Structures are given as C-alpha cells and as structure tokens.
Amino acid sequence: MSWLDQLPENVEELKRAGHLQQNGRSAEALPILDEVLSTAIDPHTRAYALIQRFGAMINLGRIAELSTAMTVAANAVREIPDPYLRGQMHAFAALGAHLQSNLDRGVTHLVQASRALAAVRESDRETAWGWHDLAMAYSYLGFHGHALTAIEQARQVGAAVGLAPEIFAAPGIRLRNAVSLDHQGDTDGCLRVLRDIDAELSRYVAIGADQMRPGSRAAYGYALARRAALGEETEANALQWLTGGGDSVRTRDLHHLGHVCLRIAAGRPQQALSMLDAVPVSPEILGAAEPARLRSICHAAAGDHAAAHAADRYAFRLAVQRIDRLRDGYLDGVAARLDAQETQRDADRYGDEMLTDPLTGLPNRRQLERYVNAMLERGERAAIGVCDLVGFTAVNVRHGRHCGDLVLQRIAGVLNRVMRRGDFVARFAGDEFVVLLPGAGTAQAAEVSRRISAATNAENWQVLVPGTPIGLAAGWSEVGTNGRTLSAALAAAAANRTPTR
C-alpha cells in the first residue's frame, strides 16, 4: 500500500491528478485538485492536494501565484509530522524560488527537502516521485552532481515498488549539465554528455521501453537537436522527439529552442536568429546563457565571427553570474551565522513569504518599511535612492509583458550585483526600485549610482528586447537625518530623479 492509499478520502481523484501531472497535463489536473480542496476535511489529504496544486502552478509557469500557493501549502504541512509531505513541499518550493530568481531561498529549501525525504522510513511511489522532484530542483538551481544522486535515489526507491527505470530517466538533468558546460567554454564536455543522452535513448528504444514520461521526450529531442547544431549527426530523429510532452513552460521552451537548433543544423542560421528574436524563452529552463550561446553558434555558421565572439562572451558572463551568486550566497550564509551569535533575530523577518516580491525575489515595499522602521528606532540614518526604468513602457508595448518581466528580473540582478555588503534593495512598485545605503552620505551614494549606471549600460538589452533601449533614472535623498521619515525621503528622492550616466 502506498502513502496515498492510506488517505481517508479523495484517493482516486488525487491519483488521477497525479497521473495527469506526470504526463505533462497540469492544466487538466488543477480543476481536480481544486474540487478535492473544496470538499476534503482530512488534514493529510488537504496538505497533499495543496502541494500538488503548487507543483501544477510551477509547471504552468504561473509565477505571480507561486508565493501564495507555497504559503498555503507550507501552512498546511507545518502542523503535520510527515517527512514525505515536508520533503515534497520543500522540493517544489526550491523550484518556485528558482523561478522567482531567489537562489538563497531555493538552496535552503533544497537542504530541507533532502533531509525530510531521507527521513521517510518506507519506500513507496510518492516518495520516489519526491526524490525525482528534488532531483529536478537540484538540476535547475545548478547543482548537477546532487541532481544525479537524487535521481538515482528516485530510481532505487521506485524499483523497490515495481516502477520501471525509464520513468525516472530524467534526461533534462544531464541536458542542463551539458549546456552548462558549453556556456562555460567546454564544448567537448558538452558533446560527451549529449552523446551519453543519445545512447541512453537508443537503449530505451531498443528494449521497447513504453513507460517513458512525456516530459522526457522534449529533453531527449532537444539533446539531439543541440548536438546537431554543434555539427554532430545523430541516428535518432530529433524532430520526432520534439513533439508532444505536455503543457509545461519547460516543454514549450525546449520545443522552440530545439527547432532553432535544427535550423542551424540545416544551414539556415539567419532563420534560426529570427526565431530567437521572435519568441522569448524563460531563462530558468536551460539557463539565461542558452539563447546567447545559440546566437553565437548562428553567427559562426553565418560566417560572422566577430558577432559570434561577442555572443559567446555574453553567454559566458551570464553563466558565471550564477556561479558568483552561489559563492556570494555561501559568504552571506557565514555572515548570517555570525550575526545570529551576536543578536537575537526578529523572528518574522524572514518567515513571512509575503515580504518578498514574487517576480524578482527582492524584498517588497512592506519589507522595506519594516527594515527602515527598525533602523530609525535604532537612531540610524541612510542614503536612499529611487530608481525607475527608462524605456520600460515601450518594452511592454513592443515585446509584451513576458519580456517586461524578464527586464525587471534582469534589473533586479544588476542592482543586487553592484550593492555593497549590508545595503538593502527592494522592488517598490511596478518598474520602481529602492536602494538603501545604511550610514552612507552623498559621496557614497554618488559612487553606488555610478556603479548602477555602468552595470545597467553594460547589459546586452539588444539581445533581450531588440530595438528597445533600457536605462535607469535615479534620485537620492536621506532617511533618518533631521527626523526625515521614509515617505518624506522617498518623495524627495523621486523629485530628484535624473537619468543615470
């Protein structure tokens, strides 16, 4: 008997919803889960349904709804001493944090998920899928070795309850590993991994394996197409595998980029470039560097080696940013532990998910107000800057809101990157960001403003939103000086805004 069979109500409905999700049909699973939640009373049943609903939101890329869905699921699990439920919830929460570009929170959830799933005493189907989802989370966040370990655990737990190994093939894990190597300049290493993926697919086809998940098709298809774009022929037909696969954002983007690769392989690089320009893809599926790397391959195939070199440099820079963020997260973790030894943390400073902007992962207006109020109570002051995006309206009109969201995420990354340790960055509203420099005066604010301007201008906006220049207008003031409140300081800073240079 599986974990799910032990629930007192709605077992068949939950199994049906789970089967739909595993087969890439999350949009069909959602109304079933909502119906269960409208009638279920048992706490375990409701917690499981809420977690699966959270997972469906992730699959469908409904980023704006993730914070609320995760909060509700986490609250339902908090009072239930069940390691499987905790592990599954944290695995999905790590994926959600990744989609919201909050790497630090994502890593925290990875650790919690691994510990919870390791505490499950009896093997069953649900625990196997929990390990599978944790493996996916590890992979998306860039921890490829941990992802391979977790997916092997999923296979072992699954085998113990009679699940076929191809169910947990998870080619997307090694695919992300392969393109990561290519982004960092190791194309030979990338090709070795892609050949292994091709060989695995050939083995599954040869033995007539019929339990491969639809979502795996897109990953196999892209691996074949990516290998062809790098100049190697494959026995399997990439186009055949780039069909179906479900309704997830991941499948949609892999299909699109796979056809870009096939245009390159067919000797039509200009057509491939047009396809890259026409349809933006999520930077979270194969890494923000993948479209830039494909542009480089296109330019090289077209004989424009200068453009290929420039695109390669940009791809490498994007890839290195993730590594730098991991290192910064490690340093910040050490600093946080030292801080915890010296002062008693405000218990709800990090506990309220509603203090975080779901799109950028930055603190929101509410958290900014709490931070400044605490600072003013201590009698401290700070330089405060209000930064608005220049050209953002044109982005939404010309390229759509999805590209607008990508621009906001990019700017959030720029601001996080150039701030000094101890500075505070928040998304205040719309395209307006606020930066707080504790203890700083005019000179330090001017220097930070110059760094923000240089970093913004260095971004390759032409690749992300062609023909739509992006800039920042910033104004500065002080909060805490002569009793100036946050609202007064923000008003003064907004009144002083000028385009950064």
TrEMBL record:
GO terms (molecular function) for this protein are: diguanylate cyclase activity
Against InterPro entries, the record matches this protein to: Diguanylate_Cyclase (IPR050469), GGDEF_dom (IPR000160), Nucleotide_cyclase (IPR029787), Rev_trsase/Diguanyl_cyclase (IPR043128), TPR-like_helical_dom_sf (IPR011990)
Q: Which GO terms describe its cellular component?
A: plasma membrane
Q: Which domain of life is it from?
A: Bacteria
The segment(s) forming the GGDEF domain are 380-501
Q: Which Pfam families match?
A: GGDEF (PF00990)
Q: Which GO terms describe its biological process?
A: cell adhesion involved in single-species biofilm formation; negative regulation of bacterial-type flagellum-dependent cell motility
Q: Which NCBIfam families match?
A: GGDEF (TIGR00254)
Entry protein name:
GGDEF domain-containing protein
